[in-house]
Amino acid sequence: MAALLRTVEDRDRQLRVRDAEIARLNARVADLETQLGQNSTNSHKPPSTDPPGTRPPKAGTGKKRGGQPGHKPNLREMLPPEKVTRRTEVKPSTCKCCGSSNLRKADAPPRMHQVMEVPEIVPDVHEIRMHGAQCKDCGETTWAELPANVQAHMFGPRLLGLIGYLLAGRVSRRQLREMLIEVFGIPVSLGALSEAEARTSAAIAASTNEAAAYVRAQPVKNVDASTWRIEGAYAALWTIATSFVATFFVTPDAKATGIRALLGKLHGIMISDRGSQFGFWAMDRRQVCWAHLIRKFVAFSERSDKAAQLGDSLLLVTQAMLSQWHRVRDGTLSRARFENIANNAQLAIENLLECGVSFEIRGVSGACADILVHREALFTFARTPGVEPTNNHAERALRPFVLWRKTSYGAQSERGCLFAQRS
Question: How much is the pTM?
Fold first, then answer.
């Protein structure tokens, strides 16, 4: 009998070990399935990484393509007379009705048609011939120097500005070299373009420093970062953006020390995501991006456990609240009325998040707890004019740099980083 009891105990112990292992493996499988299902709608991943079919096609509206009835026409704009470089007067010779040539000038003004053309581009080359003179007494040859109004570089100011503009517009140096040769008839080397980039960067340094000081002093600023590369090594490209000005900075990493130094004195309201590097900013002076929160709620709703209903509820309340916020921006709902709506939404969302914490589900409860830590920064937009609920403005400002990074792999030198952040 004792042996049988020991056997049963051993089996029970083995079953407990197996049950624990099965639970661990099930949690691991669920975690891997969640990672496998990540895309731009439920995580921080960019849309460029989405596989085909991630976003379902939009349902048709049943309307025909093009402008709809009542749409304000976008008519061709005629240039004013002072912009016209040449004119041709055309008069009818016979009547289109009877063919008579007995015509007189009509009272109506002439009909206008303008044809625009790019002028023939011929490079304006200023050649300075510096002569030498030999001294009759000592035999030394002295050469004339460049006039004070002539720079020692091969590019004039307008051409230098054009090169800087196109390089800042993400045209590669090889493409720009080909364009200058084929379109403008100006042969240049890649090294000369690199030198022009450095000169442009130095010329706009003071202006970009003024812009940086301006955005730091604004009462509301959007802050975000993207991956950057310096000689293949990972770095961070930051933007601090306002409604009118966006500035950019390259730092070795995306840690708090870098962005804290860039922002300087803690002034105004910062709109950002929930990154831990922003913890130095007072929580009641922040606005957490609701676009990021929505993606997190979508991830909850796509799970196969009880967190799915939590995600659906959070999405329902959030979308209802933000739809009313759109009415505030459109002027069809007063801010005072929206504040009441936001207060009710805040209570509902915090209650749902607290339920999520109590679930003790990996990947859900911790996220809910972290969002609750930021509760003071969730509804700043509802109570402070000029604050948007999302950080989309900063993300749009960074998008050209993301494309630049994907095509050119960032910068290959400190000078290239300076040009990137200044341009």
Answer: 0.78
